[in-house]
Specification:
2 copies of one chain form a homodimer. Chain A is α+β, with helices and mostly antiparallel strands. Chain A is built from 14 helices and 35 strands. The two termini of chain A are about 55 Å apart. At the A-B interface, strand 3, strand 7 and strand 8 of A face helix 1, strand 3, strand 7 and strand 8 of B.
């Protein structure tokens, strides 16, 4: 089937240009402090075709086009008439140029259909497999892509002394529109909270609408994040019905979670909603702020996605956008660890999806990133050093200043990034490269233990353990558990000395808290994880949140929760990294996770919530796995071609392909 | 004085996008087979300012803007009101984002004026000196730049049986416009020759004009190259006055040349005209075709420019555009030698202009080009090897196939490129780097002599001299003379065995012929050069040319002259490399050339034309040098602060700064 094709990655850069300039603050567009990529303007498509008879090939394109047939200019070319290609074998080259639109072509003629079998070049030397997605209509090129829209209405309208307050009932992202007459300037104040919308001096987002005589409606052409809108009365303007178009990526939650605890169920629902709002052209951090694509944030969204939408496309788009073009000059989003997450996410994507094609696409870019950007920054120990200009962001905890290079968590992440790249190499049958990267992984890991492991304290220290100022943070210790670097004994020591030790700097972001909870679960501390979920995410729900926040400190009250960065409403109230329970509940409570790529083999190791009951399902590439657990039995329905093992009460029961397993539990209430 | 500023090089890439998509062939845009650069979309400008009192800073920009003051977001920012900057020292950051327009800013407040003292970054790590030119009006940002236009009229209108033929009297580049009424589609056929315009099936360029009821005029929004226009009659359309807007870069010829030979004077005039037509946003190869920027072609235009417009800006724009961005993946214009000319042109630019600032701007990019692109492609001898995909273009002579790596002319060009880069390093006081590159130059030159010099034949062979198939071409021998690699004795041998040897493959492009004529002059063969100019350029004039051609073979007749690339009108009839006499007459007959950068020291070594008289002037950075020579005396008027030497009749006479020298010749008619 013919598809629109383009230079791989360029569709993402084309969309990224729009996304990078969508964050607003009081009428001003705030743009990122990193390089924003543009697509290539002048690309050449190529294909060797064999025709059974002479044909006129009609080429659709999103820019100017010119054609070479068998390495000669096709002269007297009229694109409306097409290219006359004689019977037999021929090489077709199509040059497409556009200043402003992604260059792309579409051909749908017998024997000549555009698809991923075409080659494309931007530098006119190195050919790559063409990029494509699901654009099959010649009249709808990729440049017409936009998210879906569907109408929404305010749930409640309150007439105030000087204006109207609209409550849409929950956080949303929408184009505001309305009926209007008269003339003047209407201002719409947006709020993720009621307080924000009403605080016209300090709310983050407002839009001005010029109303002119003869207009009967308005449509704000930018979608914005809000739950509340406040519109002050303007003499001379009559405002009629106000509503909006919800803007969203059409993905559906393919997972499910249910327990007897309504709070946990609500946490799951709101986490899914938070995920959906932040899952768009790309995985965004938050929909109000920063409305940007951050590699560290995205590395969590990918994981949550595997337990909800299982949408490969948004993962691929996000990874392509973050990788950008060469030369890489700064760490992704300028943050040292954010580069490293990208490698790890690439491997995890393969583990969940078994999408080998994407590995083939990205592996060369992953290698140049490692070889040309990361490795030249290592020291004699193999440690990834930081430049003074690098940002090393891990959490907002108030920890002492650090020598950016000698940080245990960075080196652990780097070691795991090397391993991830080695594993990707292995998937592609590049054994030598696999050995190289995995060898580097092993020797780096040895160095990490030598430098950062404190036998005395029973954990990794933040900087070198031998330093007289050495102190402990949670980060490296969490990663060590997640990456499986610790044996049983060391794991237990880390749990005691760090994870369950209140004297260690508390984690202040849900972002890092997410990893801590994963580590709790990996270490078997399900009670602790559950109880934290209830108090932390439950705490936000008690405050009436309809999506999870960027930051939540139970010690705050009222609108204090919104304060950040010196701004009254600085906190993002719909932030992807707040959706952690999606993964926690799916991977550790329903307990479903892949053992080999794409769930060809998997395990189901369920755990109860509140000691009672849970049920739900987890999507896999070719189906889903349904799990139910209560004190009496465990049931797994495997609607997938993979095979698995049910781990319950210390037993291992084989789960057949497309089969069902029901196990009577031997000791009720064992958990 | 405040100026619009931008990321250095981006103005060129912004203009380059337009120029790269302006070549047309029968309604189709033909785009180059190399990467076309785009500007950076998201840049950040920075300046540390010190204000004597509080000020509101109004920032003009060509994209969205947001501001950081002393590393904090400037919130509640309304660009119409400006940024309130308190008295004292502050760091201002302005972020500008634009998808489609070059991001640029303009500030004109006391103490805060945008100019080249600002810094700018595209990758948000490495800061560069901001780019600027002569945009000082806040309402006219660099994105509004366009060439000048002035109205022109056809010289002659011929009514033919089915249409009208307009002759504008000479080659031009213009927007065609006219008075019209009725309805239908008018087609305008363009011709650099009468034949081309009338050959509606094969002419290179045509434009269709939709005429609708109520229209009284039309304006074709693309300027095109032509001398003739043919417009067939269309029933239902009445065509009134037809005229055009000549489009040009407003540069003036600051040189002059006059002799008693009207043909030579005409050659000079038409060469200047050819130069002017091809000197535009950048130095183009030809105005009809390819209408692109080729490094090899431009390397000649720069030189001609120093003897005519002496416009530094078009040189800088062209060199920036050709250099492009990193990573460099292919040779410039895909041609191996075209990369090398760029280095040489950079040095020559300095020699003529003494523009150290531009050396500072380009030196880092010149180094990465050498270190990251060229040097990794060298073999153990230091030879620059070619990849199979590289194009090695030197001339259209029908010489045997060659091993692309082992070519004497490439290695000589490479050696001189290394020397040029070393000299640029020297200008910037980078002594070690100068020594490095000049050392590489010397050892490469030794290798070149060892491998390619044939003592037996008394010249360089095309490939290795020891090869049994070795043959001789002119190219390396010409370059060896131009680069001063040969001693007196070797020079004489090369002249005899190559330059004056008809058995050696004849040069077929004016492009390479240009270098051969320079070599003739360098070797003192003025009679030969003069006689060739008269026959070759004079030959075109006899055929009625009004600008010089891409190719001219006296053996052809009539419209045969236009045949090329299998196209009836393939030859470009206004081609920069056809303007060689501008340089020949200025540098070798008026004989004015710099000895040290910017003509601080210079020589004047004039030669007669036709044994009679010549006079003229040559522009220098701060003035001009006027020369007159006849059989009795030589006169130099030095309207510049530099000092020179007049070399005439074997004498050396000092020319003082801003002074005049008149010398009676001792032997009349010596030449």
């Amino acid at each position: 089937m013919a598809q629109w094709i383009w230079y791989p990655g360029d569709f993402e850069f084309f969309l990224g240009l729009g996304v990078s300039a969508a964050r607003m603050e009081r009428g001003i567009v705030i743009t990122p402090n990193w390089r924003v990529e543009n697509f290539y303007n002048n690309v050449r498509f190529s294909k060797e075709v064999e025709l059974k008879e002479d044909q006129r090939i009609r080429i659709y394109s999103t820019g100017t086009q010119c054609v070479m047939l068998d390495y000669d200019w096709y002269s007297h070319y009229d694109p409306r008439e097409g290219v006359l290609v004689p019977k037999g074998k021929h090489v077709i080259w199509v040059y497409v140029f556009s200043r402003e639109l992604l260059p792309s072509i579409y051909i749908n003629c017998p024997g000549v259909e555009t698809d991923a079998s075409w080659q494309v070049t931007s530098d006119h030397l190195r050919w790559k497999k063409a990029g494509c997605w699901n654009f099959t209509d010649p009249e709808k090129p990729p440049t017409t892509f936009r998210l879906e829209r569907s109408p929404i209405e305010p749930e409640k309208i309150t007439l105030l002394e000087h204006g109207r307050l609209y409550d849409f009932g929950r956080e949303t992202m929408a184009f505001v529109k309305g009926e209007v007459s008269g003339s003047g300037t209407l201002t719409v104040f947006f709020g993720e909270s009621r307080e924000e919308a009403l605080d016209t001096e300090n709310c983050c987002i407002f839009e001005c609408v010029s109303v002119e005589e003869g207009m009967d409606s308005f449509y704000i052409p930018r979608s914005q994040a809000f739950r509340y809108l406040y519109i002050p009365d303007v003499p001379g303007i009559t405002l009629g019905r106000l509503h909006a178009d919800y803007e969203y990526l059409p993905v559906k939650n393919k997972g499910a979670f249910q327990s007897e605890d309504p709070l946990m169920n609500q946490i799951y629902e709101v986490a899914i909603r938070t995920m959906h709002l932040t899952t768009r052209e790309f995985f965004l951090d938050g929909i109000k702020r920063d409305r940007w694509v951050w590699s560290g944030d995205a590395s969590q969204s990918y994981l949550m996605n595997y337990y909800s939408f299982f949408d490969n496309d948004v993962c691929k788009r996000t990874m392509r956008l973050i990788r950008g073009k060469d030369p890489v000059i700064t760490h992704f989003n300028t943050i040292q660890d954010y580069t490293l997450y990208w490698f790890i996410s690439l491997w995890q994507y393969y583990l969940y999806t078994a999408d080998q094609e994407f590995m083939e696409e990205m592996y060369p870019a992953a290698c140049t990133l490692m070889e040309e950007f990361c490795l030249p920054q290592t020291d004699s120990r193999g440690f990834l050093m930081a430049k003074p200009t690098d940002w090393v962001f891990i959490d907002w905890a108030d920890i002492p200043d650090m020598n950016k290079g000698d940080l245990s968590f960075i080196q652990l992440l780097f070691a795991y990034a090397l391993k991830a790249l080695g594993q990707v190499a292995g998937v592609l049958g590049r054994q030598k490269e696999q050995e190289r990267y995995e060898g580097m992984h092993r020797s780096l890991l040895e160095q990490v233990f030598a430098v950062f492991w404190s036998e005395e304290r029973g954990c990794f220290t933040h900087g070198p353990a031998a330093s007289p100022d050495a102190y402990v943070t949670r980060y490296a210790n969490i990663f060590a558990i997640l990456f499986g670097c610790l044996d049983q004994e060391k794991t237990q020591r880390v749990i005691r000395s760090v994870l369950c030790n209140d004297a260690v700097y508390e984690i202040t972001t849900p972002y890092m808290k997410f990893y801590e909870l994963l580590a709790f679960c990996e270490a078997g501390l399900f009670q602790e994880a559950e109880s934290y979920m209830k108090s932390y995410w439950g705490g936000m729900l008690k405050l009436g949140c309809t999506s999870f926040w960027e930051k939540y400190d139970p010690k705050n009250t009222g609108i204090q929760h919104a304060h950040m960065y010196g701004l009254k409403y600085g906190v993002s109230f719909c932030h992807a990294w707040g959706a952690g329970p999606v993964l926690l509940l799916g991977k550790y409570y329903l307990g479903v996770r892949p053992v080999t790529a794409g769930y060809e083999q998997f395990v189901v190791e369920p755990h109860l919530i509140g000691g009672r009951q849970i049920s739900g399902k987890v999507p896999v590439p070719e189906g889903e796995i349904c799990v139910a657990l209560d004190q009496e039995r465990a049931v797994v329905e495997n609607h997938s071609p993979g095979t698995g093992e049910l781990l319950v009460d210390g037993r291992r029961i084989r789960i057949p392909a497309k089969g069902r397993v029901e196990v009577k539990r031997q000791q009720a209430g064992i958990e």
